[in-house]
Structure formats: structure tokens, C-alpha cells
Amino acid sequence: MSSPSLRAAYEQVCTMSAMSVVAEDRQARMSGASRRDMVLEAAVGEFGEHGWHGARVESIAARAGISHPYLLRLFGSKRELFLAAMDSAFDRMEHAFVEAVATDEGDPVLALGEAYRVLLRDDPAALRLHMHALAVAGDREVGVQITRRYATLLARMRALSGASEDRVRTCFAVGLTLTVVTALDLPDRRGDLRWGAKLLASGAPA
User: Side-chain half-sphere of 136: how many Cα atoms within 13 Å?
Assistant: First the structure.
């Protein structure tokens, strides 16, 4: 084999090796992101069921199918994991609201209410997590973050609906009441939006 041929073969091997390293690195990053999402899903469930004080990081790791030490590599502390799970729960709600208003041609406030009812039915742990977060809002970091997220949520609801501030507050109050009803699992009331719909519709423009 001539020298140029050897050089060309060597360069080809180097190029293939470099591409393999990049692919493996990309796969590792994607896997890490996927594992992080799995941990957050598990954390929302665990914190939603047991609250900050009752939830166990070991249980979250088990739910996510990873080791406790690896979880702590992703999230350095239980507080950090709780804050991330709380953000994830709020993100789910905001996404559901955006989708509801985009696909419903009726009253946008009623669309927000219906989206919340569906969340209560399909994802109650995430909404219970909001209540657990309120219960520990005396913690400075939790208090600052949940205040910011609720303020952002109210602003988003008003922007999506175009409704008055009073009507958005009514929608918000109805949602909190339904969350309490769901958390207590009151008979014949869970997820029932009929009475709430009357309140929401009462403030609609003529």
C-alpha cells in the first residue's frame, strides 16, 4: 500500500472514531435528560402523595429506577428536587391551559376551568403538590419560588383568556377549591365543575 493510501486510511479511521465519540456523547446527554425527566415524574408523584416532609428521596429513586447516589448527582438535595418537581407541576398546568384555549372556540375562561378539571382527574398528584408547596411556603426558597410561579400563572391565565382581573381571580379561586375537594376526596364532588362553571360564566361579558 502506498504512503498516500495509508494516510487516507488513517484519516478515515480517525474521522470514524471522532464521529463515534460525538454520537456516544450525544446519546449520554440524551439519556441523562431522559433520566432527569423520569426522576421529576417520580418526584411529582412522591411529593404529591406525601409532601416535602413525608416523601423519601430513596423512594423517588426507586420509582425512577435509579440509585439514590445517582439521584443526588442529578439533584444535590431534597429541597432542590422538591423545587424542580414543583416547577414541573406548574409547567404541566400552564401547558394544559395553553392547549385548552388554543383548541376551544368557546369562552376561554370556561376552557381553562375544564382543563383544570381534566388535570384533577388525570394528574391529581401534580395538583396536590401545589398544596404541599403552599404548606411549606414558610421555607424561604420554596416561598419565593411558589409566589413567583403563582404570579406567573395568573398573568398567563389573563393573557390567554383576555378576561378581567376579577374573572381570572374567580377562575383561580374555583380551581383552588376543586383542588381541596380532590385532596379530601369528598364524595360526589371530586372533579365536578358544574357549580364552578356557573361562577365562571357569571362574570362573562354580555
Answer: 20
C-alpha Rg value of the chain to the nearest Å: 24
Spans in the chain with pLDDT lower than 70: 1-32, 185-206
Contact 182, 120 (CB under 8 A): yes
pTM, entire model: 0.74
Q: Tell me the per-residue pLDDT of 37-46, one tens digit each, with 9 for 90 and over.
A: 999 999 999 9
pLDDT, tens digit (0-9, with 9 covering 90-100), for 116-161: 989 888 888 888 898 899 999 999 999 999 999 999 999 999 999 9
CATH code: domain 3-202 is 1.10.357.10
- 40-56 in b/e form (b: 16+ CB < 10 A) is bbbbbbbbbeebbeebe
What is the C-alpha separation between 97 and 187, in angstroms, rounded? Answer: 27
CB contact set of 10 (below 8 Å; sequence gap of 6+):
none
Q: What is the dihedral angle through the alpha carbons of 78, 83, 89, 92, rounded to the nearest 10 degrees?
A: -130
What is the spatial distance between Cα 46 and Cα 53, in angstroms, rounded to a whole number? 11
Q: CB 12: neighbour CB atoms within 10 A?
A: 10
Domain ranges of the chain: 3-202
Strand, coil or helix: what is 134? helix
> Given CA atoms 140, 143, 146, 149 in this order, what sign does their dihedral have?
negative
